[in-house]
Amino acid sequence: xxxxxxxxxxxxxxxxxxxxxxxxxxxxxxxxxxxxxxxxxxxxxxxxxxxxxxxxxxxxxxxxxxxxxxxxxxxxxxxxxxxxxxxxxxxxxxxxxxxxxxxxxxxxxxxxxxxxxxxxxxxxxxxxxxxxxxxxxxxxxxxxxxxxxxxxxxxxxxxxxxxxxxxxxxxxxxxxxxxxxxxxxxxxxxxxxxxxxxxxxxxxxxxxxxxxxxxxxxxxxxxxxxxxxxxxxxxxxxxxxxxxxxxxxxxxxxxxxxxxxxxxxxxxxxxxxxxxxxxxxxxxxxxxxxxxxxxxxxxxxxxxxxxxxxxxxxxxxxxxxxxxxxxxxxxxxxxxxxxxxxxxxxxxxxxxxxxxxxxxxxxxxxxxxxxxxxxxxxxxxxxxxxxxxxxxxxxxxxxxxxxxxxxxxxxxxxxxxxxxxxxxxxxxxxxxxxxxxxxxxxxxxxxxxxxxxxxxxxxxxxxxxxxxxxxxxxxxxxxxxxx
Length: 483
Prior knowledge:
The model is unreliable at about 1-15 and about 345-350 (pLDDT under 50). The protein has two domains: about 1-25 and about 245-483, no CATH class; about 30-245, no CATH class. It is globular and about 65 Å long. It is about 10% helix and about 40% strand. It contains six helices and 31 strands. By secondary structure, the chain is mostly beta strands. It starts with a helix and ends with a strand. The strands form seven sheets. Strands 1, 2, 4, 5, 9, 10 and 13 form a seven-stranded antiparallel beta sheet that branches. The chain has a six-stranded antiparallel beta sheet with strand order 8-7-6-3-11-12, with no helix packed on it.
């Protein structure tokens, strides 16, 4: 083993000891073991043509503890809640459900899962529960606005005592007494501190075309050390809960940071901050391929005021007018698979024409189609929550990769932690204390792409030759000590 490798290994041990002593409960991402909160960056029941997508969700409790969870479905424009309920998972339990189109042009959650939950409607004779997503918070837009958005799950605490006995399944898989928690009889003494271990997946499936795209939920670990259980009709908690630790831990290639904040929202935002997002695109004409980039900003709703005001808090931009949402500008650089980048074109103008405004993202959950002159928005998912200038990529390339850099003033300023923050250099093990700037925006998401081969011969008959896949975004971080 080289001296350099030994040095880095020793520094890593120093960092681990540092975090073990100081950072036992600091908000962090944990894609391996899971966490106390899950973010599903997108759901949709829209369609590009006549065939709608459905969205399948799973929530997995990998721990030996019973869980009391708050599950929230949020529409994609402002992140307003459209459906929320408490879900109780016994040890090692899994809940599943699906979002499908409803008869009124909106969305409904359907599930046959028997894990205890505070649904508004009972299960029907077929064993199905149907919960409509509500448009009450945006009645002027109607139920169509519920057709795409994102989902968040928070662990309010672990469950013990009589409550754990009630939600635990018998040998046939049926909980002993869901009515106990549905009637809001939960004794707060039965709720202990959250312990994590939540994992989940989302699947965007188009039954008619045969496409299926699946990604993991984003898992946030070590949010809280005390329980914050509330009855299902209580709007509390969310990522602004006072119980969430105002401390976060993030790691770059060269450093581990322990960041102190004045509130838990900034701690959650900081671990999701990226200054640039990277992914591929495929637009092959032979397979009429489509590519959509999904981006969700899970804390945006807590930092950008509702319509009718222009207020916002870092790192998000304020609105220019009360009737318009605050938007985040970005630049985009793309390449084909042979390293060719943007090609400058000529102009017939005697002078340079005025520059168009830069593209921007304006919603809590945004989808933008990638195009090259062959395809146009609304792209693969038929999203209406798209960027202000579409399509995202307008090169002549049929495939390649792209880097999206956030360029707005808020993203450039980013978030600045409190002076007691610190970092460990993984190369040397040295520790430096001081305020830290984390630039960019708190974002998560993925690329979804499709291939169409038309009708194929299958075992003497015909079948759809349509395929889909999804890939999480890669990203870069910009983290630095404040001079």
